[in-house]
């Protein structure tokens, strides 16, 4: 087994998924050969949740959250539990609205049950110091949803005090999202610019990509996208196209872009014709109809 000077958290934050898989495999192999300290076992549990989340394996991330709670919740020890609780609540905050939008009642019920268990464990848990205080405030912001500007700004403040730039950039992104939902583009833009600078300095590629997507949603200048230019679409139209290609329904488009479902449907219906007028499709020339792009959901 190769040694590494860094843990899987750094590789995961930089989007180095192959390296993360290798490090996680090494840790699991190590855990079967020796008895990990409680701290080491808790760190592994938190990384398992975050890894499943980043890989898009939401059921796996929920499984890892429940397993971690089974093992560590009875200890009521903040230094083991707060990283696990925050990682688990982030999974729930991502999965629950998607499950609701897609009508997946079974998954929604499961997420709700995990969420309630996380809240129950977190309620009486101590926060001894800035490290744990920051995690409680961020946990509460995730639990409240992604629309409360004040709670996310509080998370920004506590991550600054704790000196944790990756978490700070993430909190700035969520604060920008909440500001965008409230219609305050200027505030959203200021938070996004700072988040982007932090993410770029950390080489946190996945977080930086999410920041850039949000910048397009609130129509901040983000430079010329080569693909966008090739298809001849506006930034808004291209963002709709990206989301449709990712399998989003019209309702999910509306939620992510802060627009009505009707407006989302109009964008989806209009994109092919607009693209053909601005840049004729190579397949059939100016007179040929564009490929169909059917609204979904």
Largest sheet: none
How far do the termini sit from each other?
Answer: 48 Å
Structural class: mainly alpha
| Average pLDDT rating | 81
How many helices in DSSP terms?
Answer: 15
- CATH architecture name of the domain at 144-214: Alpha Horseshoe
Helix and strand sequence: HHHHHHHHHHHHHHH
Strand content: under 5%
Which geometry do the CA atoms define? globular
CATH topology of the domain at 144-214: Serine Threonine Protein Phosphatase 5, Tetratricopeptide repeat
**CATH class assignment of the domain at 144-214:** Mainly Alpha
Instruction: Estimate percent helicity.
Output: over 70%
> How many beta-strand runs?
0
CATH-defined superfamily of the domain at 144-214: Tetratricopeptide repeat domain
Radius of gyration: 21 Å
Unreliable residue stretches: 1-5, 222-227, 278-297
Reconstruct the topology from this structure.
Layout: H1 8-13, H2 17-33, H3 38-55, H4 58-72, H5 78-101, H6 105-122, H7 130-144, H8 149-162, H9 165-181, H10 185-202, H11 205-217, H12 226-231, H13 235-245, H14 250-257, H15 261-278
Helix pairs in contact: 2-3, 3-4, 3-5, 4-5, 4-6, 5-6, 5-7, 7-8, 8-9, 9-10, 9-11, 10-11, 13-15, 14-15
